[in-house]
Amino acid sequence: MWNELIRLREATESRKISELFNDTSRASAFSLQNDGLLFDYSKTTLDDDIRTALIDLAREADVEGKRAAMFRGDKINTTEDRAVLHVASRALAGDADDIEIDGRNIMAEGRETFERMIQFSNDLRSGAWPANGPKITDVVNIGIGGSDLGPVMAYKALMPYIDGPRVHFVSNVDGADIHDALHGLDPNTTLVIVSSKTFGTQETLMNARTAMRWMEAGSDNAMERFVAISTSRERTEAFGIAPERVFGFGDWIGGRYSVWSPIGLSLMLAVGPENATEFLRGGHSMDCHFVDAPLQENMPVMLALVGLWHQKFCGYATRAVVPYEHRLSRLPAYLQQLEMESNGKSVAMDGTPLKHGGGPVVWGEPGTNGQHAFFQLIHQGTNVVPVEFIVGAMGHEPDLREHHEALLANCLAQSEALLKGRTLEEARNQLIGQGKSGDELEVLARHRVFSGNRPSTTLVYKKLTPYVLGQMIALYEHRVFVEGVILGLNSFDQWGVELGKELADGLVPAIASGKAPENANGSTRMLLEHFLALAAS
């Protein structure tokens, strides 16, 4: 099907998206609705033939069979010999069947941990924990990658639902991060959560030790106010965290898919167990849709196929995610990790080079801010960038309705402008109306031309709730899975992050000792010596 899709692209390359709307049913025919979400992909170049070919491509790659293998608990992460069952974490909010991996009932284990999280959350929020001190008012969540990006994204998104302690997130090994997070906090009313799957991540442990020293300097019961989210009881105990304050999860949950797991404890503490459970329910709803819906009516599948069409057949190397929802300000960063760490690969499952390459560059910023930053390039630049708009019909501030109306108007206007553009003749007429003429008119008119025909999709929901956020994140997770299957890669490992970490481990003592490693190249040696000289001056 790959060659057929190339042929279809060549045959339709000069066609205007606007022409496709001569079919008055196009908007409904090229959009999907499920459980309160609407996904509109009508402002793309897809037609019936292209969509059919893309669905055939998905069948050819056995998306349905591999989807079943993932939900069954097969070890589809072959390079690490692991199952991929983050979906099991959100199934805890429903009546899911038990799943066994290597003789272990992971659903039973997950339910037990989830109940412990609920009990701990209720105790902390009520003031029953800690029994020997004042009520916790602040939580410091220390983690990096999936241990940070998911929780901080969800915390900001669900700000209207926060009625528990304030949560401060620390991820960067830069000391400024932990310094600023701890500034002004009281150790006696602060809980520190150390989130590290292996409890061996350099940045996280360095920040955790700094937090421990800070806590010990201001509290008599320092280690009692530490909680660990980790699979390594041995390492957490060696750090000094008691087993009853350790919440573990299995290796079948990858870091960037872990917001559903105990990694989301900080979110539960902030919004409460009921709202945290609603978040899981939303994700589980999308799981059920992904499993049950036919491919053409399947939102994650169609989101993936539109993305593949743009990148692989239209040649658009990047895509912009632009949520017109300020509280989703961290969603683009979250999706960068989800998509680029998952599908930013060059090697196929069997170890051979990928025939069609890996996934795209993903970036973005909330609207309307993005309009005043990079939309100039999106509208008039030489590189076409498909835009994925995300917007809610309602806000959480009924007394600021006019703000939300302006937000919606801007979102719709941007997608319309990308589609329609502005011709040279239209630009001339506009300038004539402003009194311009002659050479000045001709020069200015060319600056005001918009080529249009730039694709976009729009995801619409009623209101950003915990349930809707769960739906949205699961939608994008499954989109990544489908794209990875079709490209023939493993979306669940991340070997690309390892080499830099290994080299950093060797450079830390070199910087401390003031001596460059013997095997450092000329540039690294020069930079290191320059750093040391600046620090000593």
TrEMBL record:
InterPro entries noted in UniProt: G6P_Isomerase, G6P_Isomerase_C, Phosphoglucose_isomerase_CS, SIS_dom_sf, SIS_PGI_1, SIS_PGI_2
Q: What class of enzyme is it?
A: isomerase
What EC number(s) does its UniProt record assign? Answer: 5.3.1.9
Q: Provide this UniProt record's keywords sorted from A to Z.
A: Cytoplasm, Gluconeogenesis, Glycolysis, Isomerase
The reaction(s) this protein catalyses: alpha-D-glucose 6-phosphate = beta-D-fructose 6-phosphate
Q: Which GO terms describe its molecular function?
A: carbohydrate derivative binding; glucose-6-phosphate isomerase activity; monosaccharide binding
GO BP annotations of the record are: gluconeogenesis; glucose 6-phosphate metabolic process; glycolytic process
Q: In which pathway does it act?
A: Carbohydrate degradation; glycolysis; D-glyceraldehyde 3-phosphate and glycerone phosphate from D-glucose: step 2/4; Carbohydrate biosynthesis; gluconeogenesis
- Top-rank taxon: Bacteria
Function of this protein? Catalyzes the reversible isomerization of glucose-6-phosphate to fructose-6-phosphate.
Q: Which PANTHER family match?
A: GLUCOSE-6-PHOSPHATE ISOMERASE
Q: Which NCBIfam families match?
A: PRK00179.1
Q: Give the family per the record.
A: Belongs to the GPI family.
Q: What is this protein called?
A: Glucose-6-phosphate isomerase
Species this chain originates from? Shimia thalassica
Encoding gene per record: pgi
